[in-house]
Structure formats: structure tokens, C-alpha cells
Amino acid sequence: MNIKFDYSGKNVVVTGSAKGIGKAIASAYAKAGARVIVADVSEKEGMETAKEICAGGGTANFVRTDVTEEQSVAALIDAALGLYGRIDIMVNNAGVVGRIKGDPLTDLDSEDWDRSYQINLRGVFYCCKAIYQTFVNQGYGNILTIASVAGKTGAPEIAEYSAMKAGVINFTQTLSRELGPKNINVNCICPGFVYTPLYENAAPIYKEKYPQMFKNAENGKGVVDEFCNQLCALKRAQTPADIASAALFLTSDEARSITGQALNICGGCEFR
Ligand SMILES: NC(=O)c1ccc[n+]([C@@H]2O[C@H](COP(=O)([O-])OP(=O)(O)OC[C@H]3O[C@@H](n4cnc5c(N)ncnc54)[C@H](O)[C@@H]3O)[C@@H](O)[C@H]2O)c1
Known about the structure:
Layout: E1 11-15, H1 20-31, E2 35-40, H2 43-55, E3 59-64, H3 70-84, E4 89-92, H4 110-138, E5 141-146, H5 150-153, H6 159-179, E6 184-191, H7 198-209, H8 220-231, H9 240-250, E7 262-265
Parallel strand pairs: 1-2, 1-4, 2-3, 4-5, 5-6, 6-7
Helix pairs in contact: 1-9, 3-4, 4-6, 7-8
The structure holds nicotinamide-adenine-dinucleotide.
């Protein structure tokens, strides 16, 4: 990243940061001088990520966290405060696409719906609830949620995911109104198509459901490229680093007047 943000003296918690977009966000904050908490349900990868950040000269600690459990999220905040004494920024990134069934909607069962709800929407609620009083007491804080453009456009093959992400956007707006008077900014990033390992599982399903669209896609990366080629004005995929750059901007002092926004980082696949 060429823009230089100075986050020295700041403490940042990033959920779902063992890999993918969350890892890029945690690493970018650490590179900018922040102390970060890598919070993830995956212990092995989470510890490796924290180790990698430290090996690169940053400060990071791993705290095993399952965002589907309220106790686990409350323990995360306690642990972060115990380690760093203060939390400045909470990034609610943990999320899953789940099993892609494709349309029709009747293929979707309540198990898929509930799992998506527990991680993608209720998890964000637990995290915001857990950090709420700390930020109010500090008279300062910054909350960032990671939704998806699917939460604005809808996506038939991932109906449950789209609905939860729409919920995250709306919840972000609600919370920004409630916390704005307390000097707490709450914003949302909506990524479009970022290649992460989750697309390797999705690729065969997309290829089977939409053989024409994905006839040239050989793997998960190919599926992402094809999506972007067909749907994004810029005709290229976004990267975890693109999302991290937006995160660092949105929680910076330079963005102090921005709150309640859902910023698309999607290469121009959606304009609302
Ligand atoms: N990759 C994309 O194209 C894309 C597009 C739009 C939105 N997003 C959103 O970005 C965020 C990150 O996605 P990604 O592509 O990096 O996915 P990823 O699968 O690479 O990483 C998700 C991380 O969340 C963690 N996680 C899963 N369940 C958890 C739980 N219960 N508690 C704590 N951590 C948990 C995983 O262990 C993993 O480290 C998600 O919210 C996702 O919905 C991604």
C-alpha cells in the first residue's frame, strides 16, 4: 500500500483474520503501526498469522474466538483489553458463504439459513454488543463491518448469505445513528469479488450450475476472474489488499466525518 497511514498507538481487533481478507486487514493495520488482535475460530491458522505479523516487525496476538458464541466474543474483548489496555478499532470481518446450492430457493434448507445467520449477522451483533460499552466509556471508537455487494444486489445462488449481508448493512446504519452522538464511527465495506480459498469449494458448483458462463474457468481463481469479466466495470478482481486499504482509510482520522456508509470495493459491479 502506498498511502501511508499512521496507526501507531492504536489497538485493533479483527475477527476472521486467520486468513483471506481479514488477514490482509490485520496485517495492514500492523504494518501501519497498530497492535492487532487476530481473532478467529481457526486456532492453527490464527496463531500462524499472528506469528507472521510479529515476524514482519508488527505486534499481534491471537485470541481464539467463535463469533457464533456470545461468551466467546465477550472473552475476546476482555482478552484484548487485558493485553493492550484499550481498543480503538473493531473490525467485524468473520463471515462464511456456506454451501452454495444455487437456485431454486427450495434447495436451501433451514440449516443453511441458520448457519449463515449465526456467523454473518448474529456474529456481528455479538461483536458490536461486546465492544459497545468500552467505546462509550472511552468516548471514542471505530467499528467497521464487512458485508458484501450481495447484500445490496441479492444473489440467487446464495440467498441466505445475501439476506444476512443486507442485514449487516442495515445494522451498521442503525448503529451509526445510535453511536454517532458518542463520537463513535460505524461503517461498512462491501467487497465484490476477492479471490480467497472459499472460491475453490464454490468453483465446481458454479461451473455445474452455469456451464456457459464459466466454461473457461478452470478453478476458483478462474471463477472469480469470469465473474469480474462479466460483471465489473474494471474487468478485474479485487484483492484482499484492496479491502485492507479501504479499511485503513475508513477508520482513519481523515474519514472522521464518514459514518453509516456501506462502501463498495467491487471494481464497479454495483453503484448503489
Ligand atoms: N471473498 C470475497 O469475494 C468476498 C466478497 C464479499 C464479501 N466477503 C466477506 O469478507 C469477509 C472475509 O471473507 P474471506 O473471503 O476472506 O473468507 P475466508 O473464508 O478466506 O476467511 C474467513 C475467516 O473467517 C473465519 N471464521 C469463520 N467462521 C468463524 C467464526 N464462527 N468465528 C470466528 N471466525 C470465523 C475463518 O476461520 C476464516 O479465517 C466475510 O465476511 C465475507 O463474507 C468476501
